Amino acid sequence: MIDVAAEAGVALKTVSRYVNGAGNINPAMAKRIGDAITKLGYRRNLAAASIRPGWTSKTIGLLISDLANPYYSSIARAAEARLRDAGYLLITASSEEDGDTHDRLVDSLFERQVDAIIVVPPRSSGRPWSSVREPHPPVVFIDRPAPLEGADTIIADNRGGALEAVDLLRAKHEHVAFLGDSLSIYTMQERYLGYGDALRRRGEQVDPALVSTSAHSEQEAYAAALTLLRAGKATAIFAANNRATVGALRAFADEGVRLPLIGFDDFEAATLVRPAVSVVSQNTQAMGHLAAEVVLQRLDRDTAADSRLEVLSTTLVLRGSEAE
Amino acid sequence: MIDVAAEAGVALKTVSRYVNGAGNINPAMAKRIGDAITKLGYRRNLAAASIRPGWTSKTIGLLISDLANPYYSSIARAAEARLRDAGYLLITASSEEDGDTHDRLVDSLFERQVDAIIVVPPRSSGRPWSSVREPHPPVVFIDRPAPLEGADTIIADNRGGALEAVDLLRAKHEHVAFLGDSLSIYTMQERYLGYGDALRRRGEQVDPALVSTSAHSEQEAYAAALTLLRAGKATAIFAANNRATVGALRAFADEGVRLPLIGFDDFEAATLVRPAVSVVSQNTQAMGHLAAEVVLQRLDRDTAADSRLEVLSTTLVLRGSEAE
DNA sequence: GTGAAAGCGCTAACAC
DNA sequence: GTGTTAGCGCTTTCAC
């Protein structure tokens, strides 16, 4: 910047004003400065600018469990698009559901002076969030309940979505099975509750013989679905996540049957398989976009405004026989 | 840091040494400093450290066309994992194939003092790369040829992959059609060349009636596939990208036929559809990982080493009837 | 409208 | 082994 000032024959400060877009600059000088910048190939150092009081890095952290998971990458994409429009860039990192990795990444992000972070709390918990010293940049939790009292949170209505799906299945079919992963996972628990809600609404109880929670991997989901089919009791299946849905489809194919099925979370193959698969769809775009909005709001009016808890509703997408 | 030093009763520099893990510190002092840091909730400011000569931001930029695209998010994931192990964080941004957006993001990244950037060159070109002033952080281009002479580049063997697939189809079937997007897209052009290679190898010419390059969207891919089917000439199809493959599958379903098919790029639905779909698979993990390695190598030995051009081979994954 | 000097948080010399 | 000083690139009072 000194060089630019020398080249243009003005003071350092004038160059600073120029690059910051301050209005009060003599047009002739502005031109000289612009030329000098081009000639010297000057590039601004935002890191240096950001250490001044009142200045920020214009960078936001995004901590998710796995960037390669379409669910999260879609959220990331939406958040990035919105924040980019507002002049922010996103540092994206994957915690791999590991509490320690997550904690380390949070520290790294804070050390890099991010203005805020958007976080998917990992399943395996590390240090409690409440132990993170104030003051720190605003944190917005998404997808799962905040592990911190009174924090901004955006989640989907897992329970309501499951209720709607199971209710629809139960209207036509006697024995609706629940095929999912461990109930110790928040979203699973919620979807299971929704499953129960739908039955209780009809004055029925959950039948343990129809509940399978061992779909930890696609392989196990397949095995669980097979067991369910061979037991012969289930007349319809609610698959509580993508893995379970895919496992059920494979089991159907192998057994040569096809039970009515509704999965949770949409996926590409759902419209390709015949018959097409009905799903409870989450609006990941909306979640990413909303997370960005909440962050921007916190950053704008830096007030200690009331924390926001947003519950995004799900959409039941009926395809195949369920659509009739 | 001043506060920490005061609290611990040591000099500023000793605290600096401590947080930098310098060995030569009196254990008693180290303990006092550690306690003071905890007590005060001190967090290091890496931005301030990074403006010192010889220090860097430990941050790397990743510029891709669309984070929500599984192909790119998978690359991003692999690169992130490798770089995280090396102490780097990734600023990820989507150019949306727009040259101007891309150029702006490159500038933003450089201004934020990233140590290097990994770039997917956008289709619509903005400013020429050669006009970007030296010196600038190392740039590694991936997925498409570098728009800059002598730059590190990692691409997949699109041509060879297509050749292999078409060769296999042609061995059993008389008229293999090419279903793809515009040939002005680099990867398409390469795959089309591979298609031609396979035919020429048998002393045949490309039959224009069997070539369709209008699969710009899934809808158009579907329409193009339908046209191909109804013309009745094609006896097998090489679908040059995911969109084309999916379009072909929809057309098959609607017409109640199933031609031998090999797609380019693997996708989840490929194993779910019956019969399963054979594909030419790119190793996105390897591409991301390798991009990270090349970056680290440039950063380590900051030598002006020879530029690397890596061509990753593809894998032909045979499923369904093609597997017989 | 423009410039000189001070200082953001940090680290590298260079003493002690 | 530890402290003092200067300065990284930038922006901001506060004079002119």
Looking at CATH, the homologous superfamily of the largest domain in chain A is Response regulator
Per DSSP, the total helix count of chain A is: 11
Q: What distance separates the N and C termini of chain A?
A: 69 Å
- Helix and strand string of chain A, N-terminal first? HHHHEHEHEEEHEHEHEHEEHEE
Regarding quaternary structure, what we see is homodimer
Helix amount of chain A: 40-55%
The fraction of residues in strands of chain A falls at 15-25%
pLDDT under 50 segments of chain A (min length 5)? none
What's the shape of chain A?
Answer: elongated
Q: Which CATH top level class of the largest domain in chain A fits?
A: Alpha Beta
Largest sheet of chain A: 6 strands, parallel
Q: Give me the count of strands of chain A.
A: 12
Blueprint (SSEs and pairs):
The structure is a homodimer of 324-residue chains.
Chain A: H1 2-8, H2 12-19, H3 27-40, H4 46-50, E1 59-64, H5 70-85, E2 89-94, H6 99-111, E3 116-119, E4 139-142, E5 152-156, H7 158-172, E6 176-179, H8 186-200, E7 211-212, H9 218-231, E8 236-239, H10 242-255, E9 261-264, E10 278-281, H11 284-300, E11 309-312, E12 315-317
Parallel strand pairs in A: 1-2, 1-3, 3-4, 4-5, 5-11, 6-7, 6-8, 8-9, 9-10
Antiparallel strand pairs in A: 10-12
Helix pairs in contact in A: 1-2, 1-3, 5-11, 7-8, 9-10
The structure holds a DNA duplex (16 and 16 nucleotides).
